[in-house]
Amino acid sequence: MAYSIEQSYNIAKERYASLGVDTDKALKILKDVPISINCWQGDDVSGFEKEDSSLGGGGILVTGNFPGKPRNIDEFRKDAEKAFSMIPGKKKLALEAMHGDYKGKLEGRDKIEIKHFISWVEWAKAVNVGIDYNPTFFSHDYTEDGRTLSAINEKIRKYWIEHAVRSREICNYIGKELGQVCFNNIWIPDGSKDLTVNRLKHRMLLLKSLDEIFTKKYPEQNMQDSLEPKLFGIGVESYTVGSLEFYLCYAAKNNVQITLDTGHLHPTEVVSDKISAVIPYVKGVQLHVTRGIRWDSDHVPIITEELLAIMQEIVRADALNKVFIGTDYFDASMNRVGAWALGARSILKALLFALLEPTDKIRQYEEEGNNFAKLALLENLKTMPWGDVWDYFCVINNVACDNDLISQVLKYENEVLRKRV
User: Fold this and answer.
1) Which one of the listed residues 296, 313, 357, 388 is annotated catalytic?
2) What is the phi/psi pair of residue 337, to 5°?
3) pTM, two decimal places
4) Is pLDDT above 60 for 409?
5) Of 298, 388, 391, 413, which residue is the catalytic one?
6) The domain containing residue 74 runs over which residues?
7) Is 138 inside a domain boundary?
8) Which member of 134, 231, 265, 282 lies 3.0 to 4.6 Å from 269 by CB, making a disulfide possible if both were Cys?
9) What is the domain count for the chain?
10) Considering only CA atoms, which of 118, 29, 78, 45 is closest in space to residue 325?
11) Does some domain include residue 45?
């Protein structure tokens, strides 16, 4: 089987070479691009703040009840390891603060400490993955009608500032221990369901909170901060404090990153068009890939026109050192481990498609005004044998090819997931 895949790859290699594309070089780049894979796909955004995670730890809206949800941190890690074994290339696990190793003894989110993440660092070293981090501001009783960093109540606001400050300290520890940057992504649910008169007041309070949170500076090789905006959410349909405009201005002014989530914008907007618009002004872009259906429904990513366009824009802008690719989806209506693997593999395939593009030749046609040749070449690339290049990438990284993925996931489901009660 490996020999026939290698034969197919060599044929594909020749075809791409005729366009001036070096497939070996593309695969080398692809292997070195870390994909940050969100932990919350594995447990329906439950976390481990309670001793038995099968009971949930708050979480946000997740649909479905597929059997085999991990009941504790050990089962969760086993599932993550299985998913990662089916995803080629470099990987990071994006943790939520709620997924700390609390052993049922968390006193409060304003009391989280480095000790709660020591076992995660040890696990990451053992399985050779990096870690990113997200403070958890949602699913908690201590808010002001759902508001955290923008709350008028000073005690509530200070509680969540402390959570964010401690989270940044934890990020610095993780990054230092693992020898690679730990990205700290801040998303808050603050907003209002109906008309809001105090829009500016809440945003000024959020501004004040962020300034306090970012007071302490950490080495950039250990941790870097990012702000994640949202258009609206369930229960905050009329007003979101942390909007794209607010966070983008703050990020540009204060040298922090902006997170672009493919499901957090208006359905008529596309992230692929925003990447080149923001990278001249911000420190970096954290990319959260999900598949919104009608809106931010967080479906498992598949290869779509927009996903391909996003990856093409990153490659065409030579921005792999400034745009950091991550996932953000959760679907409990299907095998969670399979969803993990399928979504990440789709993103990698789309990135490979972009890396196999003869960008210089296409750009030359465009600059010459030869629109026919440009469009024709872009169209021809759609039927090039990039699937053969992908299969070869899987083989040389010792992971399942597409034809074997289903059987591996179902085997794990039957042997492990369905035996959990």
Assistant:
1) 296
2) -65, -45
3) 0.95
4) yes
5) 298
6) 35-356
7) yes
8) 265
9) 1
10) 29
11) yes
